[in-house]
Amino acid sequence: MAGNLLQDVPIHLWQRTRRLVSLDISRNPIEVLGVNSFSGLEKLQQLDISGLLLKRLNPRTLHGL
Questions:
Q1: HEC letters along the chain
Q2: What mean pLDDT comes out for the span 27-56?
Q3: What is residue 53's predicted lDDT score, i.e. its pLDDT?
Q4: Residue 46 in this model has a pLDDT that exceeds 90
Q5: Among residues 7, 10, 12, 58, which one has the fewest Cβ atoms lying within 10 Å of its Cβ?
Q6: CB 33: neighbour CB atoms within 10 A?
Q7: Measured between alpha carbons, how far is 10 from 13 in angstroms, rounded to an integer?
Q8: Radius of gyration of the chain (CA)
Q9: Residue 4's domain is classified under what CATH number?
Q10: pLDDT at residue 21, as a whole number
Q11: Given its phi and psi angles, is residue 27 left (phi above 0), alpha (psi -120 to 50 degrees) or beta?
């Protein structure tokens, strides 16, 4: 999903991918990551958010990863 035109991370995206261990959403024009952006991804071990255009990141967004 890296280098696409994703502008947000809809929570419903992960409902069927709960076993995901690696996620690369880098180099996308995402400005905000919400509290529930990665909820349900308990198995996630690697997350690449480099190159995002983040203006806001709630501290709880990455809690539990």
A1: CCCCCCCCCCHHHHCCCCCCCEEECCCCCCCEECCCCCCCCCCCCEEECCCCCCCEECHHHHCCC
A2: 91
A3: 95
A4: yes
A5: 12
A6: 20
A7: 6
A8: 11
A9: 3.80.10.10
A10: 94
A11: left
For residues 39 and 15, the answer to whether their CB atoms sit within 8 Å is no
Q: How many domains does the chain have?
A: 1
In whole angstroms, what is the distance from residue 54 CA to residue 14 CA?
A: 21
Question: Nearest CA to 6 among 31, 36, 34, 35?
Answer: 31
Each residue's pLDDT tens digit, 10-29:
777 777 788 889 999 999 99
What whole-number distance in Å separates Cα of residue 62 and Cα of residue 33? 9
Prediction pTM value: 0.82
